[in-house]
Amino acid sequence: MPEPKFRSFRVDAVVLRHSDYGEADRLLTLFTRQLGKTRAIAKGARKIASRKAGHIEPFTYVKLQLAQGRDMFIVTQADTVDAYLPLRDDLVLTGHAAYALELLDRFTYDDQTENPTLFRLLTDTLSRLASRHDPWLVIRYYEMRLLDHVGFRPQLFECVNCGRAIQPEDQFFSFSAGGVICPRCGQGLKHLHNVSVETLKYLRHFQRSSYAEAARARPSPEVQKEAESLMQGYFTYLLERELNTPGFLRKIVGRD
Amino acid sequence: MLLPESIQSLINALERLPGIGPKSASRLAFYLLRATDDVADDLALALANLKKNTAFCEECFNITEAGRERCEICESTRRDGSVICVVEEALDVLALERTGGFQGKYHVLQGVLSPIEGIGPDDLKIKQLIARVARGGVQEVILATNPSMEGDATALYLRQQLEPLGVRVTRLARGLPMGGDLEYADQNTLLRALSGRQEMS
Ligand SMILES: [Zn+2]
Ligand SMILES: [Zn+2]
């Protein structure tokens, strides 16, 4: 970990996760604009009268004063910018917000590098969910942008095998090759996933559009389901393990 | 320096406890090494008896003495069985009992929902709570999970599951901490305190 220039500094952060630490402290995993992903200790945060506690809950966008401790940063001050309260009043929104945080947590490292674009993507996504935009749309758009930033932008416009432009017909998708494989190249190949021409249309649209443009999309329930399971399969492949939040969401929604 | 295996294995065991890092674990292990024999003996005996002499109440899942099916609170005829207070951990029961202000019964979930950590409804004593309420005789369920994201999520899920049973579902009031100062309160606490305001009586 490189030495920070100042012993104490301010960061904009979103709390990704928290866990109990010592007697009454909390260990926070933060995604910050200035330092990317980092960890910090919030002393005394579990005491009910703590002034910091409410500011450092998961999903909260917070301005933090951090001091360099012996082996970790210590939170010395916390002020909420946006608590995205609606996310905590609706389980389905809680689950989607948690999914966004889990993906970011899994794809990033504690590398002490500023990352304003990713930070902006995260806060925009949380505020869209909190403003009750369609969660399916918000999350699919987020996934596409996240893949761009972490270096796994899928190839959706030409066949990753032969390089020919994709024609308007049902295609294959290869997780390991990171993109679409045309029906001619994909014939008889193993470990390929089907992607319908409709679903691909929306994925391509999300990849090259602004959020405002993407938000006008009105895909059918079948397309929504196919896109979701394809993307989650791709993430599971890239991360080499199952994500926790999709299972949680299925359980919560399944019992509605 | 390589430590003797008996010390290293104690350090490893202590490190697995919540809130204990490698440094604290070594400090405790060396303290026990230097302390008089009875300190270590008492600890060893207490640990050995912990699992042997305790069990979970089959009704509320609070901790009780081994051999008992139901805990003292569940058995008590002086406690009001029509009100169930749902908490995350057995320690929360102790905290509420210390206030002396609650005369109903409890249900210990043994954890809290956490989407990111992958803790779902089936990992908690939720089905058992629903079954308990469905058996009848319960008028009110007080959700006393922590005022955290996970506590809120758990309360929302429980409300969703309990409402069809026609029982009154309430949530522990969330307000400003005693001795706190409005100026320092976070948005979250302030808004919830405002929406949960009461008539002055
Ligand atoms: Zn091809
Ligand atoms: Zn009991």
Summarize this, please?
The complex is a heterodimer of chains A (256) and B (201). Chain A has helices spanning 91-107, 116-130, 135-149, 183-186, 197-208, 211-214, 221-239, 245-254, and strands at residues 8-21, 25-32, 36-42, 61-68, 73-82, 171-174, 179-181, 193-195. Chain A is of the alpha+beta class and 256 residues long.
- The CATH class designation of the largest domain in chain A is Mainly Alpha
Task: State the share of residues found in helices of chain A, binned by percent.
Answer: 25-40%
- Low-confidence spans of chain A: pLDDT under 50, at least 5 residues? none
Distance separating the two termini of chain A: 46 Å
Mean pLDDT of chain A: 91
**Span of the ends, CA to CA of chain B:** 68 Å
Tell me the number of strands of chain B.
Answer: 6
Number of strands of chain A: 8
Strand content of chain B: 5-15%
Shape-level CATH architecture of the largest domain in chain B? 3-Layer(aba) Sandwich
Determine the structural class of chain A based on helices, strands and strand pairing.
alpha+beta
Greatest interface: A-B, 42 and 30 residues
CA-based shape of chain B: globular
Strand order of the largest sheet of chain B: 4-3-5-6
Predict the CATH topology of the largest domain in chain B. Dna Topoisomerase Vi A Subunit, Chain: A, domain 2
Number of domains of chain B: 2
Helix content of chain B: 40-55%
Major sheet of chain A: 5 strands, mixed, barrel
Shape summary of chain A? elongated
